[in-house]
């Protein structure tokens, strides 16, 4: 689900901003920052504006300064939303081509690649579109922590709280 808030204040995208570097991870261009030998990683899943958003990269760098390896994959394969007000932009077609189920499937090899590099603990944060991807990831044992930053409407059914809390007595 998306709301009008998801499209407010679009960033000016920049492939050169940030202290990190862009490299390929699990077949995706990925902004990578922080110590490459860290055993703790954070996966940031972008909103519809994608992995080149300067404030997202600045946040990744800030998290990395605490000792985490931070990765921000390009789950849109170079096709983020640039101008949703353009008469040529077809919102429904874009979401059909970039569904959150696909984002979830693409995140799994990223997580596997991190684990193959020796990462033993992975946290993830999902922003708007990425929040829905994160809901799916949080229902797995692939990540140890999840933060959803989503201004759009999410239902309890989408989050499936009962399934997430099944083995947690206090939940």
Strand content: 15-25%
Q: How many strands?
A: 6
Mean of residue pLDDT values = 85
Q: Radius of gyration from the CA trace?
A: 16 Å
Domain module tally: 1
Outline = globular
Please write the string of helix (H) and strand (E) elements: EEEHEHHEHEHH
Keyword list:
171 residues; alpha/beta; Rossmann fold; 6-stranded mixed β-sheet; globular
What would you say this structure looks like, in words?
The chain has six helices and six strands, in the order E-E-E-H-E-H-H-E-H-E-H-H. With 171 residues, it is α/β, with parallel strands linked by helices. The chain has one domain: Alpha/Beta hydrolase fold, catalytic domain (Rossmann fold, 3-Layer(aba) Sandwich), CATH 3.40.50.1820. Strand 1 and strand 2 form a beta hairpin. Helix 3 packs across helix 4. The longest helix has 17 residues. It starts with 20 loop residues before the first strand and ends in a 6-residue tail after the last helix. The mean pLDDT is 85.
What's the SSE blueprint?
Layout: E1 21-25, E2 28-33, E3 40-45, H1 54-64, E4 69-73, H2 91-97, H3 100-116, E5 121-127, H4 129-138, E6 145-149, H5 156-159, H6 161-165
Parallel strand pairs: 3-4, 3-5, 5-6
Antiparallel strand pairs: 1-2, 2-4
Helix pairs in contact: 3-4
